[in-house]
Write a structure and sequence with these properties.
alpha/beta; 441 residues; Rossmann fold; homodimer
């Protein structure tokens, strides 16, 4: 098994092709490493400059004269082999090759030459033709855009854009990521290697995958099955349709295989499939935050009747049980809530509600073994909601998730606090309900 | 037909129950009216204060001593009839009743009394138990939250939260709305009245509906059919499932009716159904921006191969034709693009692309009658993309839409400019492709 520890926890990074010119990848990656507050040594390499972005620049890897854990290559493809050869001589064991122009455009001989050198010197290759790697525990973003938020989810993606978008969503959602990997051509390291790393990584609680073709299907499924015993994995694998499959094959130059067979295999090992970037994010998030409830009975508590109905449809369509409220619970709540609240499922506290009404409902409901999980919907910003939910979620094993609608600055702050407290929030009733349905699977 | 002109274009608004206390609805609505830069006369009414939020306050409607086009009522339900009676005596013809506590909690006599007075004095009633009205051409937000962006879409919603969320999304998306209406109990004005207004409103190019129950089904369908000749209408009607329908009936105290029958009726008149708030927004947006293409053949042009595949699956699943590129077009582009670009559908310009590559592709492709519409995907911020797309979209009748991923400040500015130029943008390939599929219907 390839050990990727010196890659992700590299104590020094050289960027071959670092640049002072905005717009160049060699500019952006160096900038992200600096602005991301990477604490290791950074060595910009470029024969044309003495100083790059305020750092001493080196003419070559050799001229650095210090140990290098990782090199990032952005120079044109024809120079890559020479850089690798030099790196190998210096005992560098990890290379992220951003540069494209290898087998993806039919230049198989460049690929072969590069792989020969990598094998000779035992260099781990990420890419080529990739968008790099970001590992937040090491503040090491040799990728773009800069994603700094540290969170429980890692993504391993065929598409650099999907990885980037995942990171952006996670950052905006006040969660962040543990790691982002753009696989590129997978000439060296593949999803297998990264799954092994993140599967054992204590900073990663859930893994999102975006794959278009899978090289070693049997090995992949066996590994995922093992990892699923420890942490959840979700996969976005396009190519469900014939033309989608053809496009995937063309993109990755690999056989995508029948989607039906892949789908059956996923079901067998319990690998959750997402059908969009949003689903990949939502499903990984809820599985990273919460564990499977004891059953599939849900109680909705809402201040917005209409939003409760939207969630109800999704639960019903996804085999989540919109259980009837316990008669005794109804009786108790009827004495504690204003008479215009609707004591049913959804439990509608109506638009004039405050945090105290949610508090009494949750407090009483968790005493009964009538629902296995709760969806709380806040149709307006409700001051004090976080304190209530945070306190009560610690008193129960039943999953509690939150949907915030109606907007406002209060909510953004509350969302942040909820996430820190381990309570996942979602932006619409539909997305919240779909995610909760996945948690029950 | 009820004329709602003096409601939406009111030249003076009195807020009965206006308040200096943050947290009160009477505070928030007055504040939104002021901060929204409403240019008419604002009369806060509250017997306890002389001044409210810097404005002269009045003890009663009568003491205002000037013409009032619209009153907004936030005082408790038991006082509403008296306020309406006073308003009627003063020839006020429009009342937005935010206050709840009427038939939705079984207080039918309060409802009857209120309606009697409204009928006697010919007062249009919005609500009661609603979240108000916002009409941006008049800078008049007697609702919450404050949505100021002026855009082509109106929403008429049973759920105040859905209306609010729609407005927030539209504002964040740099589009805005023409009007937002929260229907509440629909004791007076119903969806029929508002459909009539927005159907003829020159500021509204597309109408979004969120209804849980429809009172006069036949009249509703007939009216929508008429409006559809002039502008698109999209509906989010939850209650697809049995429990969803029961929840809807409980929420609106009306018979929701069979979803299958409603669905068939929608198909018959061409009323598009959305299944989530995001879909309601996306579908209304694309229909408000663009007209139906001549056929259903789409060409994807992307810088992100993976994103192109995600969109391909959605097109294939929604009967949109991922047409093969014209051989002659391939030939032309093969001479103008770098050799590593993939000349197919999706047309993959790869990650190192610039705006010029998009330009040549669109420029050449619109000369052929091979595709009826284009989905452009930008996997990274691409400087100059807006100028290219804006110029070329004016040279063709074929719809062009844009998907921005990968994030960054450049994009937010570009999205704004695209929308101003009438080019709809979407945040994921999946949402973009679903919306384009709707445009073909």
């Amino acid at each position: 098994m390839t050990n990727l520890n010196t890659l992700f926890n590299a104590e020094s990074v050289a960027i071959v092709g670092a640049s002072n010119n905005i717009g160049k990848k060699g500019y952006e990656i160096l900038q992200n490493l600096i602005q991301g507050k990477y604490e290791g040594n950074i060595y910009p390499v470029n024969p044309k400059d003495d100083e790059i972005q305020g750092l001493t620049a080196y003419k070559s890897l050799t001229s650095i004269g210090a140990k290098i854990d990782l090199i990032v290559i952005v120079v044109p493809s024809k120079f890559v082999s020479a850089v690798l050869e030099e790196a190998g001589e210096l005992s560098v064991h990890n290379a992220v090759i951003i540069t494209g122009g290898f087998k993806e455009i039919g230049c198989d001989e460049l690929d072969a030459s590069m792989l020969n050198i990598a094998e000779k010197y035992k260099i781990n290759i990420v890419g080529p033709n990739c968008q790099g790697v970001n590992y937040t525990p090491n503040n090491m973003c040799v990728s773009w855009p800069l994603v700094r938020g540290k969170g429980p989810m890692a993504i391993i993606a065929q598409s650099g854009t999907v990885a980037a978008q995942f990171g952006i969503i996670a950052d905006k959602d006040s969660i962040g990521v543990s790691g982002l990997v753009s696989l590129g051509n997978k000439s060296g390291l593949t999803e297998i290697d990264f799954l092994n790393f993140f599967g054992s990584d204590p900073n990663t609680r859930a893994i999102a995958l975006n794959l278009e073709g899978i090289k070693e299907g049997h090995q992949f499924l066996k590994l995922v099955k093992e990892i699923l015993k420890k942490k959840p994995v979700v996969i976005l694998k396009p190519g469900r349709t014939i033309k989608g499959m053809i496009a995937a094959q063309s993109h990755t130059k690999s056989i995508a295989g029948s989607d039906k067979i892949f789908d059956a295999a996923c079901r067998q090992i319990g690998l959750i499939r997402a059908n969009s970037i949003d689903e990949l994010y939502d499903f990984t998030k809820i599985l990273g935050f919460l564990t499977k409830p004891a059953g599939n009975r849900v109680q909705i508590i809402t201040s917005s009747g209409g939003s409760g109905i939207l969630a109800t449809d999704i639960f019903e369509e996804n085999d989540v049980d919109m259980v009837e409220m316990h008669p005794r619970l109804k009786e108790i709540l009827s004495k504690k809530l204003p008479s215009h609240c609707v004591l049913s499922n959804p439990l509608d506290l109506t638009g004039d509600t405050d945090a105290a009404r949610y508090e009494v409902c949750i407090e009483e409901a968790i005493k009964f073994d009538n629902a296995d999980m709760f969806l709380l919907i806040f149709g307006d910003p409700i001051p004090g909601a976080y304190e209530v939910v945070n306190r009560l979620s610690k008193k129960t094993d039943k999953p509690i998730i939150v949907c915030y609608l109606g907007g406002g600055e209060i909510e953004e702050e509350e969302i942040y606090k909820m996430h820190v407290a381990g309570i996942p929030t979602f932006p619409t009733p539909t997305r919240a309900a779909k995610a909760l349905a996945i948690l029950c699977k």
